[in-house]
Please model this.
Amino acid sequence: MLTVTKMFDICYGHRLPGYDGPCGGFHGHNSRIEVEFRRGTEPYPTMVEDFGSIKRDVGPIIQALDHRNLNEIFDYPTAETIAEYIAGVIMNSYPNSYGEMLVRIRVYETPTSYVEWRKDGCYS
Model:
């Protein structure tokens, strides 16, 4: 299976209410988000999808989280919550294109730690 991955970088602040570790206090992250797609039904004979199209169409979904206090958006703003949110918006906004093609989303909370959301059936 051929796939393409587009990366987006965002910065955000958050705190984890009720969490008894250092992340319970307000802090920030420079986060990388990867969105991976498999071949769809687009009429590109040798491409999975155009990177510019992904940036144009999916980029605003992710950029809406950039430079935000994520506690204003989510009740419990973990990397897991962010990944599930992005997947849900992509699948609901583009059900017959990007939604069908979506394979996985990775949200790097640090350069060495990430959460990965995978669409059922994309990996064995």
About this structure: The first strand starts at residue 3 and ends at 14. The chain has a mean pLDDT of 91. Residues 8 and 59 are 7 Å apart (CA to CA). Residues 3-118 form a domain with the Tetrahydropterin Synthase; Chain A fold (CATH 3.30.479.10).
